[in-house]
Amino acid sequence: MIEFEYSxxxxxxxxxxxxxxxxxxxxxxxxxYHPALGFxxxxxxxxxxxxxxxxYLGMSLPKQYGGHExxxxxxFVVTEELLRRGAPVGHHWVxxxxxxxxxxxxxxxxxxxxxxxxxxxxxxxxxxGMSEPDSGSDLASVAxxxxxxxxxxxLEGRKIWTTFAHLNDWAIVLCRSTPVAELTDKRQGxxxxxxxxxxxxxxxTPIPFIxxxxxxxxxxxDHVFVPDELVLxxxxxxxxxxxxxxxxERGGPDRWLSSYTLLAxxxxxxxxxxxxxxxxxxxxxxxxxxxxxxxxxLSVARSIxxxxxxxxxxxxxxxxxxxxxxxxxxAVNAVVDEAPNMADTSTFSRLLISATLTNPSxxxxxxxxxxxxxxxxxxxxxxxxxx
Length: 387
Ligand SMILES: Cc1cc2nc3c(=O)[nH]c(=O)nc-3n(C[C@H](O)[C@H](O)[C@H](O)COP(=O)(O)OP(=O)(O)OC[C@H]3O[C@@H](n4cnc5c(N)ncnc54)[C@H](O)[C@@H]3O)c2cc1C
Description:
- The protein is an alpha+beta fold and about 375 residues long.
- The chain folds into 3 domains: about 10-125, Butyryl-Coa Dehydrogenase, subunit A, domain 1 (Orthogonal Bundle); about 130-240, Butyryl-CoA Dehydrogenase, subunit A, domain 2 (Beta Barrel); about 250-385, Butyryl-CoA Dehydrogenase, subunit A, domain 3 (Up-down Bundle), CATH 1.20.140.10.
- About 45% of the residues lie in helices and about 15% in strands.
- The protein has 11 helices and 8 strands.
- The longest helix has 29 residues, at about 275-305.
- The relative contact order is 0.12.
- The site of flavin-adenine dinucleotide has 20 residues, from strand 1, strand 3 and helix 11.
């Protein structure tokens, strides 16, 4: 059964929202940064450190390691405000959203002590090392090999689309530790490793994105040694661990706010004059959709807080949210008088060009919409009810 229970923010959650808004007005005044398209944002380690010092990172992680043990809804409130501003969240994004939580869940005591304080402080950055040239949606076909060697493992293979691998500190890399030929199910025999991105044998080569930026990379792992103390969780349990990591990637405001700043800039362009009807229509329709998606996404966070595992609901939020993000870009393009012009360096033009070029990726990154629909359909089957 799919459950989206309607709720609104409580007075204390509204107080947190006001506090975050005041904080961002202070540390990120308009004009002091380039607003981004959602989490496709610049790395700004200094800003990440300020968020960490304010207690806005590692919010759900254990206090004993520097986290704050706050609710998923509190984290939702902070995330929504950061993305609405197009804040430069690139440095800490993956570490805060998923690497910290998986290390807290599966890591050894030593790993928790080593990594979580730096993640909660906004200092450590992480990458997602899942996709490979021949393995994206079907992660069980991952071919990067992990071979036992003395007191550690040697990794050989190639990862791709690894965001910020050329700039970040660590990656959680999914590997095949037992050959498929020795297994009855290819989801077995997989393991996760915490890999230092400066390791000998590791080369991260940026791949230019269509809008001229270079955020993601191809990563070659040529006999990269990973000591036993950096095995994440249990050898052979990589599939289950990775599935739980994917759950952190979906269902949050990052999956429906990617084009929000574009719409906000469109409104700003017209703030001195009566709003033309065609633009009011775009804004009105988008606002209604934002409210629906905000409510669905909030219900996912509430479900997590009450011990639920809303994998199906998260998949649906991502499927609907990313399609809506793309619809916003199409609608804005339809109401602008002139085609985007590379020579125009205004914030609106910069965001419109980038959104127009990159919006196809919204429904691909973090799991394609076809795959998410399949997850939802399986969850709706009677046997899928046991979540
Ligand atoms: C901007 C961006 C950033 C990314 N960052 C990272 C990152 O940091 N780390 C990382 O590991 N990966 C990252 N990725 C990779 C992303 O997760 C994959 O692109 C995605 O999972 C799809 O895999 P693929 O590209 O191999 O496509 P494929 O899996 O080859 O899919 C191709 C097409 O076939 C469809 N398809 C595949 N299987 C099925 C099925 N069973 N049923 C129906 N249709 C199916 C897909 O929906 C898609 O339309 C990023 C991608 C983008 C666009």
